[in-house]
From TrEMBL:
Keyword ATP-binding belongs to the record: yes
Domain ABC transporter: 4-229
Biological source species: Thauera linaloolentis (strain DSM 12138 / JCM 21573 / CCUG 41526 / CIP 105981 / IAM 15112 / NBRC 102519 / 47Lol)
Protein name: ABC transporter-like protein
UniProt key word Electron transport: no
Gene3D superfamilies for the chain: P-loop containing nucleotide triphosphate hydrolases (3.40.50.300)
Family of this protein: Belongs to the ABC transporter superfamily.
Molecular function, one GO term: ATP binding
Alphabetical UniProt keywords: ATP-binding, Cell membrane, Membrane, Nucleotide-binding, Transport
Length: 229
């Protein structure tokens, strides 16, 4: 089964070396291949933490996170991630930032170059290959981050409030971009947002979390058919 299965996942942090903070409790979630799932909930309910676990950025949790039935461990090309801040390295050009994600891909030079070119084109940044992050607008930098997340052809793209820092018009444009990219790339999308309208507009499933400790309280199928191109 080529889907993501999150089974009975719980997580706590230890704050100040002693105080236990339970952030996730008994999270169960299955994500079908090619789905667009949004996770919404109040600030601090553990959305980012859950995404970091799925990304393999933190292996310290209880329960299972399975991709193709195998426990995810460490970061991997099978999952790309985009954060609220673009996190492009300021001393590298756009194309070099994107190239960095392919360092461990084991691809030859021609395949890497083609993947970088096509993903810069995918997000509409052709012509900005040699630009440094400070030369890009906020929306462009976020497009660059999306290209970097997708360049390794991940099965799942994890998006942590990717549009949260953008002005309203740029956000609207990028929402449409994300939907188009989802359609053409066939990638599974998991989006964390506190914007319920954004979640409903973009996804076919909305998962609602609550705090104290973070748990899933509702799952909605949005039910709007969105045929792929
Ligand atoms: P959300 O993304 O829903 O806002 P987070 O997953 O970022 O929630 O955080 C959940 C809770 O865990 C918050 O109370 C936050 O302050 C706390 N937290 C997040 N990361 C850490 C960390 N590395 N160490 C300790 N506490 C953390
Ligand atoms: P987001 O808006 O994506 O949820 P946060 O502002 O909650 O991000 O967290 C930013 C970073 O700080 C994350 O790496 C998170 O793990 C860490 N962090 C958040 N809350 C705490 C905390 N209470 N103690 C230590 N680290 C934290």
């Amino acid at each position: 089964p080529s889907r993501l299965d999150i089974r009975n996942v719980s997580k706590h942090y230890v704050v100040n070396g002693q105080q236990r903070l339970d952030v996730l409790s008994a999270i169960d979630l299955s994500v079908e291949p090619g789905a667009f799932v949004s996770i919404v909930g109040p600030s601090g309910c553990g959305k980012s933490t859950l995404l970091r676990l799925i990304a393999g950025l933190d292996g310290d949790y209880r329960g299972d996170i399975l991709l193709h039935g195998e426990r995810v461990a460490g970061t991997s090309l099978s999952r790309g991630i985009v954060f609220q801040d673009h996190r492009l390295l300021p001393w590298l050009t756009l194309e070099d930032n994107i190239a960095l994600s392919l360092e461990n891909a084991g691809w030859n030079k021609a395949k890497r170059a083609e993947a970088i070119r096509s993903h810069i084109a995918l997000v509409g940044l052709t012509g900005f290959e040699k630009a440094y992050p400070h030369q890009l607008s906020g929306g462009m930098a976020q497009r660059g981050a999306i290209a970097r997340g997708l360049v390794g052809q991940p099965e799942i793209l994890l998006l942590d409030e990717p549009l949260g820092a953008l002005d309203a018009l740029t956000r609207l444009r990028l929402q449409e971009e994300l939907q188009r990219i989802w359609r053409v790339e066939g990638v599974t999308m998991i989006l964390v947002t506190h914007d319920v309208d954004e979640a409903i507009f973009l996804s076919d499933k909305v998962v609602v979390m609550n705090a104290g400790p973070g748990r899933i309280v509702r799952e909605f199928d949005v039910g709007i058919p969105r045929p792929r191109e």
